[in-house]
């Protein structure tokens, strides 16, 4: 890696691509594999064209640190995030500058350690309820679809914990609306995406219909909060004031922020839970080590606030799963001014992609990167590696606001499921990376058979 400050910047290497389209076609066919190939063939900093845009992919720890931390003010959300606004409006995920700073400060208390510890009982209860249902499925010899189960679980816990709202009756409807909205948020290069929003195309009608459904849910949540005072996040949003004008947030600001956290918070955690449970089910030695730790510390109980930090191996399994299958696997930025990354020129106005998926499989940082090995996350091993070689939750000021909450939920889910059941992937169920949607979902469904464990009942 070159010293960014002193070297003469060069043009980064990359594929030639087709005239007019650049690498759009192979990128669209399989974005994850395409970007992995880019790192293999052109190194840690590569340049490509996607249609009219010049884009760089930066995967070295030095470049990632410069973009997310050292020179973060130069890298804004940019044009690739505009599609997200169609669904989420202008919330934490899609804004920069003054608005972002004010909103982040206002909702931050809901995500502090103490607030997260307070919602542990909600997660334990919802997970326990799910496992009781699984018991019936096991007795009937029926497999369960992990994706549907985890989406429901994380939606229910998020809604209960931050919004004080019981969403159980609405989960089937919301699952469909969330899936359709995610599809819209990611550009596919269809002509319909380029048409103005006011035209009554099928896509625009779908966006508006789903937005109305989301808006109704958020209105219900606010009404319920007005009646009961429950829901820490709703309270913070209702009480928030603009730091300069002292004005309260508008209805639209409140709605967009609550919706952003709804969407950013549950699908990501559900995806991580699926991949983690699947990895444990398919790696016998990992499963045995994990079962050993859990029976030693918990002896069949659900973890308490004091016990969660002592589950070291459980933590390492989750961290390794977030390395190989980072749910937010790709995120874009636009460079405001020219910059230099790893000695290569980044023109102002061009787009840049960071990809935890590709960086987490960078052979310059990870030995045997494709292997699932939780021991990469012992404190000694972590100390040996450059810090920004691993960033499943991003980094710098824009780091995921929900990371403590996600890790707490994942630990509880993994501990409670593993103590009560062994999961066996249904033979023939091909699990591979999904589409290039927000999170790195397994394709289709992820069916597993359940085997109840003798005496391994995890109760709350
Ligand atoms: C395993 C689960 C999760 C993963 C892997 C994840 C990952 C990420 C990443 C990588 C970013 C940074 C994106 C960027 O810089 O462009 C981010 C931002 C964000 N995440 Fe998460 N996230 C998870 C769970 C959650 C949860 C549980 C919540 C809330 C309940 C949440 C809310 C947000 C929000 C609001 C942002 C935008 C923060 C800002 O820009 O200030 N996430 N997340």
SSE order and pairing:
Blueprint: H1 24-29, H2 31-42, E1 45-50, E2 53-58, H3 61-70, E3 75-76, H4 82-88, H5 97-107, H6 113-118, H7 120-139, E4 144-145, H8 146-163, H9 171-185, H10 202-228, H11 232-239, H12 251-282, H13 284-297, H14 312-324, E5 331-335, E6 339-341, E7 344-346, E8 351-354, H15 356-359, H16 379-384, H17 403-420, E9 421-425, E10 447-452
Parallel strand pairs: 2-8
Antiparallel strand pairs: 1-2, 3-5, 4-10, 5-8, 6-7, 9-10
Helix pairs in contact: 4-9, 7-8, 7-17, 8-12, 9-10, 12-14, 12-17, 13-14
Bound molecules: protoporphyrin IX containing FE.
Describe what you observe in this structure:
It is a single chain. By secondary structure, this protein is α+β, with helices and mostly antiparallel strands. It has helices spanning 24-29, 31-42, 61-70, 82-88, 97-107, 113-118, 120-139, 146-163, 171-185, 202-228, 232-239, 251-282, 284-297, 312-324, 356-359, 379-384, 403-420; strands at 45-50, 53-58, 75-76, 144-145, 331-335, 339-341, 344-346, 351-354, 421-425, 447-452. Helix 4 runs antiparallel to helix 9, helix 7 packs parallel to helix 17 and helix 13 (284-297) packs antiparallel against helix 14. Strands 1-2-8-5-3 form a 5-stranded mixed beta sheet. The protein has a 3-stranded antiparallel beta sheet with strand order 4-10-9. Strands 6-7 form a two-stranded antiparallel ribbon. The structure holds protoporphyrin IX containing FE (HEM).
């Amino acid at each position: 890696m070159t010293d960014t400050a002193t070297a003469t910047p060069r043009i980064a290497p990359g594929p030639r691509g087709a005239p007019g389209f650049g690498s759009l076609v192979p990128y669209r066919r399989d974005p994850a594999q395409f970007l992995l190939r880019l790192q293999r063939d052109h190194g840690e900093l590569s340049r490509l064209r996607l249609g009219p845009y010049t884009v760089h992919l930066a995967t070295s720890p030095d470049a990632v640190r410069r973009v997310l931390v050292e020179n973060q003010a130069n890298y804004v959300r940019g044009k690739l995030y505009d599609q997200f606004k169609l669904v989420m409006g202008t919330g934490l995920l899609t804004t920069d500058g003054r608005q972002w700073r004010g909103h982040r400060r206002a909702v931050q208390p809901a995500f502090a350690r103490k607030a997260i510890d307070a919602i542990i009982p909600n997660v334990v209860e919802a997970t326990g309820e799910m496992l009781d249902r699984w018991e019936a499925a096991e007795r009937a010899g029926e497999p369960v679809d992990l994706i549907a189960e985890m989406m429901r679980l994380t939606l229910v816990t998020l809604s209960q914990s931050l919004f004080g709202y019981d969403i159980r009756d609405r989960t089937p409807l919301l699952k469909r609306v969330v899936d359709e909205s995610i599809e819209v948020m990611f550009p596919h290069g269809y002509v319909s995406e380029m048409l103005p929003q006011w035209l009554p195309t099928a896509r625009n009608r779908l966006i508006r219909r789903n937005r109305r459904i989301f808006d109704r849910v958020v209105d219900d949540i606010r009404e319920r909060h007005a009646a009961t005072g429950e829901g820490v996040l709703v309270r913070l949003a209702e009480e928030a004031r603009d730091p300069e004008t002292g004005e309260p947030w508008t209805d639209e600001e409140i709605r967009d922020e609550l919706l952003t956290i709804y969407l950013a918070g549950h699908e990501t955690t559900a995806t991580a839970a699926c991949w983690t449970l699947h990895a444990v089910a398919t790696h016998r030695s990992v499963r045995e080590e994990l079962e050993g730790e859990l029976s030693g510390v918990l002896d069949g109980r659900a973890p308490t606030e004091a016990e969660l930090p002592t589950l070291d191996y459980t933590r390492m399994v989750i961290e390794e799963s977030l390395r190989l299958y980072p749910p937010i696997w790709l995120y874009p930025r636009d460079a405001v001014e020219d910059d230099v990354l790893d000695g290569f020129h980044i023109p102002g106005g061009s787009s840049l992609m960071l990809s935890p998926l590709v960086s987490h499989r960078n052979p310059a940082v990870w030995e045997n990167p494709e292997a699932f090995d939780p021991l990469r996350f012992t404190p000694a091993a972590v100390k040996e590696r450059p810090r920004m070689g691993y960033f499943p939750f991003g980094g710098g000021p824009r780091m995921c606001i929900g990371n403590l909450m996600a890790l707490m939920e994942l630990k509880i889910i993994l501990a409670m499921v593993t103590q009560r059941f062994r999961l066996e992937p249904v033979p023939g169920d091909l699990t591979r990376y999904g589409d290039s949607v927000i999170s790195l979902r397994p394709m289709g469904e992820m069916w597993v058979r359940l085997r109840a464990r003798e005496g391994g009942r995890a109760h709350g």
